[in-house]
Structure formats: structure tokens, C-alpha cells
Prior knowledge:
Largest sheet: 5 strands, mixed
Low-confidence stretches: none
Order of helices and strands: HHHHHHHEEEHEHHEHHHEEEEEEEEH
Distance between the termini: 54 Å
Number of helices: 14
Number of strands: 13
Mean pLDDT: 90
Shape: extended
Amino acid sequence: MEADLVAQRAALFCLARQHADWTYPDLAAAVGRSESWVKKWLSRFKHATTSDLTLFQSRSHARHTPPPSTSPPVVERILSIRDDPPDHLRRVPGPRTILYFLQQDAEALALGVPLPRSTRTIWKVLRAHWRIATELPPHHQPLEPPEPLAELQADFTDIGSIPAEPGGKRQHGVEACFFEDVGSRQVPYAEINADFHAETALAAVIACLRRTGLIGTLTFDRDPRWVGSPSGRDFPSALMRFLLCVGITPNVCPPRRPDKKGYVERLIKTYQTECILLEHPETEEAANEVTEAFLRHYHAERPHQGRGMGNRPPLVAFPTLPTRPPLPEVVDPDRWLISIHGQAFARTVQPNGSVAAEGHHYYIKQALAGQKVVLVVNAPEQAFSVLLGREVIKSVAIKGLVGQALPFEEYAARMLEEARSEYRRWLQHQRRLHQLSLWAS
Length: 441
């Protein structure tokens, strides 16, 4: 842009010397600029003190003299109005309000000096004298990664190169589910599946834990396949209850906070850019092959620039991982109840005197039909404390609990069945929403 302008100015300079009889319109038409532009630059050429190329360069529009400063007495009046506003104002005045009062202030007018005419000038005075708080830049502190196998992060990602089945239940064709160890950046388990739902997601978690043993924490987002559908459930999802019962802490990210599982998010970006977008698999079998090849390269050859990795591949930085306790042989299937001790559910008593919670009905009292009661979880007693107002009117045992320890394989099969039921309820809920949308349209 600047080169074009220099050429046009140089052309104008030469034309003005060669054709002294040309008018401003003639010169403007010759260089393709406006008459005012021609007049301005001819005036500069006339009064120029140099004849080198700097004559044709643009000039800064910055001020040649500093702007007039606000006199100290006026600054004192501005701060006085800010700190001690008129009694009838009843709020802290801002720059616009101060400008209004300043123009009517007898003391300011008596000073005989120019008063500010812009709210920006008053804002600068307030900012310079700490009447407006200065926001300090955020201080970013790098996170110290935990010990290997202390925390895993899990997430799904679409393999967009595989087309979805026409008329299929899901809008995507095939997904990959990754489990990344935060401490060592290794991927102990990854799975490719064309139909991830609550049951298959839980099966992937169990398969991962068979390899790693009992980790400390599993972090994931609020995907319904992890946490269950937001409607129709009072208790945690099957996957959440499974983790709590085997002794693993589920860490659910807040809504719209993918940074809380940033390690696996970064892994997925690397997987997409360095594997899927390059290999472009078109079948599930091809996706499995390229994913396995990518993970071999990722673990043993690709230098990792993460904190604590020393620009080395994960298997070089952490050749051996600590041994974690294996999955328990016997599981208390009701252990998860401790995590929701004290949780309350508001319910309206039905005409038959009962209320519903987690698909089970509890009889309260028929005389309370139409009134609101609160069911408070009492985990030690495995019961609901029923509150009417502030008074506990009765206690009812929580239904659906197992009541005895189970072998792990039997417990895992039971939780997979419950996850399958969750998925069916989710499908029914989606169908109802679809029907409602069709009726509304």
C-alpha cells in the first residue's frame, strides 16, 4: 500500500514539473487521485526542504505537541466531586456525571482556567488517582502434573473421514475414545467404536482399569454417556456409581470448561491433525489400524513438549509406570450412596399419598396429597428422611439397593446392564422430544 502511494506521489511530482500548465483536475485524472489530494501534495512539494525519496513518504498524524494538561486545581475539583458527590445524587458519580456537575461548579468556574470538555479526560484523571480500579493482568501459573497413573482424563472424538450410516441413530459414523494418563502423557487405552453409548462407554472404562489398576481420579466432561441424561435421574449414572464403588474419584468438568481436561483435549488435537487428517481412514477397520500406528509413534518416537517431559517421547520420559492396586475382587455395590449423603429432592405428594424417586415409589401419607415434601438422603441408614416444612415426618428405606457385597465380575455385569437401561431411557426421551418438535411444527 505504501509503495503504491509513493509511486503516485512521485508521478505527481514529475507531471507537475513537466506540465506546468495542467490544472488540478488534469493532474488528479492523470494519477487517479482526488483534487484535494493533488492540492495537498503540491503544497508539500512547494514547501519541501529536501528532494530525496523521503519527500514522497507518508507523514505521521501524531500530535507534534503534547495535549493540554488538566490544571491541578481542576483535578482537585474533579476528585472532590467524585469523593463527596452532591447529597441528592446518592451514588458514586461516573465521568459523565462529574462532567455535568463540573460545568456548574462555582469553585471550578471561578478558577478562570479551561475545564475538561470530554468524559475521557475525566476518566483519565480518575484512573491516574486510583478512583477507578486497575485490572491487573492474570498471573498464569503452570500446573504441576500429578504422579503417573494418579489421574486419567477421558474424552471422545469423531473420526470425520468415515461417513455416517444413512438413517443411523447417531449423526457421526465412528468415534475414538481416549484415556490419557496426566502424569506420564501415555495412553493406556484407546478404543474405536461406531456406537458409543452409556454401556459401551462404561465397558471402555472397565477395560482401561483392567490395564492400569485402580487409579486415583478419572476426569471427564458432562457428556450424557458419562454422567447420564440430565432428565429422569435422581441418583448418579451407572458409570459414576461404578467408579465410586471401586474407589476411584470421578472428576466431572464444569459446563463449557474443556480446559479442565486440557491434557486429553491436546492429545485429541494431535490425533486429529497428525493422524486422521493425514491418513483419512474411511472404515472402522482402517481407523483402528491408523490409530494403533499413531499411538506407537506417539509413545515411542514423537518428542513431547509437555511440562516435565523434557522434549522426549512418553515411553522415554517414563519407561516404567508405578504399579497400582488391581480391581477389587469383591465390591460393595451400595458404597456410592455416601457421595450423595444429605442430597435433597423436592416432590409433590400424589393423590394416592406416594412420591417417586429414581423410578421407585414411596408412600408418604394420603392426607398430604398435593403438598410439597423433601426427601433427604441419609446414607448411613440407607434411607430418605421425609421433611414437611422443617419437620421430619418419617423415614423410608431407599429402594433399589443391593444390600450385600458382590464379586467384581458379577457387579460389573450388573452395572453394564444398568448402563444399558440408561441408554434405553435416553433413546425414549429423545424420541419424545422429536415427536414434540414434530407436533409443534
